[in-house]
Amino acid sequence: MISFVVKRALAAFVASLFATAAFAQDFPKHPITMIVPFAAGGTSDVIARTVAEQMGVALGQSIVIENVAGAGGSTALARASRAEPDGYTIAIGNAGTNAATYTIYPKLPFTPDSFAPIGMVAKTFGIIALRKDFPAKDLKEFIAYAKANPGKINLGHAGVGSSNYLICKSFVTAAGIDATLVGYRGASPALTDAIGGQIDGVCDAAASVSQSINEKLVRGLVVGSTVRLATLPDLPTSAEAGLPEFEAQGWNGLFAPKGTPPGIIARLNAAARTAVETDAVKKRFAELSTVAPDPDEHTPEVLQKLVTRDVEKYRKMLADDAK
C-alpha cells in the first residue's frame, strides 16, 4: 500500500508537471533578452538581430539584443549561464564561444553542461580579407610574402576564442605561415582598422565583411568554402586558390541556461525555425552569404552534437593556446 507521504510527493510531482506545462503554454509574457557575445556589427550580432526580429513576431513578444563583449565571448556566456532558466534570457553562440573557449580558457565559470541547446539558426563561411593596399595580389603571393616576413603580418579577429579567431588559426595552420593575430572586442572594430590600414587584414565571416569587399574598402583574399559565394562571385575558394586545407564553415546557435523547461525550449526552437524560414530572413541571409540550417538540422540534439564535436576538434587544434 502506498503511504500517505509517497502519495503526497506523487501528487506534488504531478502538480509541478501541470504547472510547468501551463507556464510553457503562456510563455512568453514579456520581452526576451538575447545576449550577443560581441560588439555590434559583427557576424553573430547581424545574424542575431535578423533572426530575433522574426522570432519576436512568431512569439508575440519582442526580443531585445544585449551586446556583451569581452574574452572571446566568455564574458557573455558567463552572464547567460547565471541567468534564471525561465526562457527570458537566451544567448547566441558559435564554435568559438561554445566549444573552443573551453580549451583556450580552461578555468571558466561555466561548462558545456551549463547550457540547454535551443537550435542552430545559421551556417557561415570564413573569409580572409586584406587592407586594400596590401602588396600581395592573390593567395599565392600572400603566402610567399608571409614566409619571407615571418611574424610581420597582422590579422585582426573578434577576440581569442571567437569564431573569427578560429578562422585565423585554421588559415595560418593550413598556409604554414607565422602571422600575428590581433584580438579585438568584436569583428566590427577589427574590420574598421583593416579599412583604415592599421592592420594588414582580418579573419571574418562573409556576413560581416562581404559589403566592405564589394565596396572595395578591403580586398577579399580567399573564402574557406567548397563553393564560391553568390555575393562574392570573384572571390576564389580555398581549393581554387591553391590551399584546399583551409576550411572555415561555421555555425551559429541559440542557447538557454541549464534547467530551462523543455516546453519553453520547444517554444523557442519552433520560433527559431519559423524565423529562418521567413522571406525576410532568407533575403537577409542571402545578402550576407549565410544559409539557414537544413530541415533536419534545426533540433536541439543536432546543436548539442555540433558542440560536442567542436569541443574535441578545437581541443586538439588549440592545445598550445590554453591559458
TrEMBL record:
<comment type="similarity">
    <text>Belongs to the UPF0065 (bug) family.</text>
</comment>
<protein>
    <submittedName>
        <fullName>Tripartite tricarboxylate transporter substrate binding protein BugD</fullName>
    </submittedName>
</protein>
<dbReference type="Pfam" id="PF03401">
    <property type="entry name" value="TctC"/>
</dbReference>
<dbReference type="InterPro" id="IPR042100">
    <property type="entry name" value="Bug_dom1"/>
</dbReference>
<feature type="signal peptide">
    <location>
        <begin position="1"/>
        <end position="24"/>
    </location>
</feature>
<dbReference type="InterPro" id="IPR005064">
    <property type="entry name" value="BUG"/>
</dbReference>
<keyword id="KW-0732">Signal</keyword>
